[in-house]
Amino acid sequence: MALSKSVAGLFSGPKSCVFRKLSGAASSQLDLSGIFAPIPTPFNPDESLAFDKLEHNLGVWQKIPLRGYLVQGSNGEFKLLKDDERVEMVRRSRHFISKDKLLLAGSACESTRATIEMSNLMADAGADAVLIINPCYYKSAMNEETLLKYFWRVADECRMPVVLYNMPANTGIDLSVPLITKLAQHPNIAGLKDSGADVGKMAQVVHTTKGLGFQVLSGSAGLLLPALVVGCVGGINGFANTNGAELCQLISLFKEGKLEEAGELQRKIMHPNALITRIWNVPATKAVMDAGGQLYGGPCREPLAPVTKEQLKTLIEAFVKEGFLPQQK
Question: What is the value of pTM for the model shown?
Answer without folding.
Answer: 0.93
